[in-house]
Design brief:
six-stranded antiparallel sheet; alpha+beta; 252 residues
Length: 252
């Protein structure tokens, strides 16, 4: 009986510790769930702007001095023009790293490959814990379809990354990842990329690309051939008729 109060106090202490651990875990899970990501395609047609927004929620309190980026994989039906991206980066309008860095912008969808994009994000002045970035993307030409007038290109929700140069991170929400890209944060210590546990507002974004009907292929080929022959004949006739005048003018 003498040990009864002591065991009772020990049990109460274990209960308090368990409740504290449970509350801490619930707080961490809530902070992780507060991080949301949205992406949308602006404008219409083949040439779009991919807009990515991230709200870090409670995790954003630990992101001071860190670089925030979105990593997404573009399917073969959509691409980024590296020359356009280089021009935008020279003007400090956007910053991104493409893998691979050599992209065939003329290749159709069925001959293209995926593109891995690391898109650096800037703080959103309208929200203290929000970041955003925009990237111009372009749809590729697809094979003619049997019935539908549109091909669907599905973009999965991007992964949110943070590159920090100190150890003040929330380990339950931030997991170390390997990223072959520089971190533009502080350089006074070892820098590490982290992936943030988050919930996407939408699991995927769909780009609708207009395509032709396969049953029209013969008609298109015939019309194209006739137009080519007609234009070539007109050019040849003009050269034969007026070509000597151009030579005389050039000799004078």
């Amino acid at each position: 009986m003498a040990g009864g109060p002591r065991w009772r106090r020990r049990g109460e202490g274990l209960l308090r510790a368990g409740l504290a651990a449970l509350l801490c875990a619930l707080y961490v899970q809530a902070a992780c769930r507060d991080t949301t990501v949205t992406q949308e395609l602006l404008q219409e047609g083949f040439h779009r702007d991919l807009l990515v927004r991230a709200e870090l929620g409670g995790v954003g309190e630990d992101a001071g001095g860190c670089t925030v980026a979105a990593r997404t994989r573009l399917p073969p039906g959509i691409y980024v023009d590296p020359y356009e991206l280089a021009l935008l980066q020279q003007q400090n309008l956007t910053k991104a790293v493409l893998t691979p860095d050599v992209i065939d912008v003329e290749a159709p969808e069925y001959l293209a490959t995926d593109i891995l994009v690391l898109l650096y994000m800037e703080p959103d002045p309208r929200c203290s814990r929000c970041f955003r970035a925009a990237l111009p993307v372009h749809g590729r030409y697809h094979r003619p379809a049997e019935e539908s007038e549109e091909a669907l290109v599905v973009l999965k929700s991007p992964e949110v990354l943070i590159c920090c140069c100190d150890s003040r991170v929330l380990a339950e929400c931030w997991k170390p990842v390997e990223v072959e890209a520089p971190c533009s944060g502080k350089t006074d210590g070892p820098c590490q990329w982290y992936s943030i546990t988050h919930k996407p507002v939408y699991e995927e974004t769909i780009l609708q690309v207009p395509v032709g009907f396969r049953q029209h292929s013969t008609l298109v080929c015939v019309v194209t051939l006739l137009a080519t022959v007609l234009c070539s004949s007109l050019i040849l006739a003009a050269v034969c008729r007026y070509g000597h005048l151009s030579l005389v003018s050039c000799s004078e």
